[in-house]
UniProtKB/TrEMBL annotation:
This is ABC transporter permease. It comes from Arthrobacter crusticola. It is a multi-pass membrane protein. InterPro entries: ABC_transp_permease. It is found in: Cell membrane. Keywords: Cell inner membrane, Cell membrane, Membrane, Transmembrane, Transmembrane helix, Transport. The lineage of its organism: Bacteria, Bacillati, Actinomycetota, Actinomycetes, Micrococcales.
Amino acid sequence: MNKVAEAVAVPKGRGRGSFMTFLSGNGALVGLVVLGLALFIATPDFLTGRNLLNVGIQASVIAVLAFGLTFVIVAAGIDLSVGSVAALSAMGSAWIFSQADLPGWIALIGGLLIGTLSGAVSGLAVSYGRLPSFIATLAMLSVARGLTLVLSGGRPIPTAPEVSFLGSMLGPVPMPIVVLIIAGTVAALILNFTVMGRYMYAVGGNTEAARLSGIPVRRVLITVFALSGLFAALAGLLLSGRLDSAQPQAAVGYELDAIAAVVIGGASLAGGVGRISGTLIGALVLVVIRNGLNLLNVSSFWQQVVIGLVIALAVGVDSLRRKTAQH
């Protein structure tokens, strides 16, 4: 009887180990669920349909920005320019429509191309100019914001109807949420099911080993920054579509939220680790925190403090996870 009991017994610590493994890989999701339950208890307004749609709309811009940034961070880079590139793309699109008097669909495509080109320039500076991504994208942050002010003269510019459509409703569903789902699906397909996606993980894991393996590292770096610029442009168009105008100071500071969303979602700033699904959850965590604090009438000043602490905690967990993996 004792032998039978020993044979079917669960080894000591296995259950706890499985739980810790799940928690390590899905910490952001668990945190989002706990946060949602806490806010549901704290305020009955949180889980209403109207508020949840509002959360989705607010998350759309940050999440789309963060999707593009995920490619860069997986490849062991950083992109500080996504907020400014989003603003430049939206302003460029509005200028093409209202000042150059071109059709709205050209303005929409033009905005996406402006963002992609801006990202590609950063990628060229990193891959061929050998600039650290921090410096290259910091320079692009300033250049893109300056060009946004030059194009606008410091004033808002009306957007094309095709861009405004991105901020409208598609039946009962807001278009920003539809765009979020499509953008997330495309980003996940690129990262998980393409050769370039595998190259991104390889370059982020060990750049020199990837180069010696024949992976075109320079092309990969240009691609990840171009994709980051493309998704930043889409986020900028979403934002201007909601406002029916391109604002010269739009998306200021959004790059910090995007980086935080990627890290909260489980990506490593050291590169080689990251998932689009995790990035989406990270963006939702940030937005749910802000939304919940607003519902609880917490001062916006304290909200900045809370978000800062969450970012610090996420980076600390990433650092601890990497140290644990090394040992």
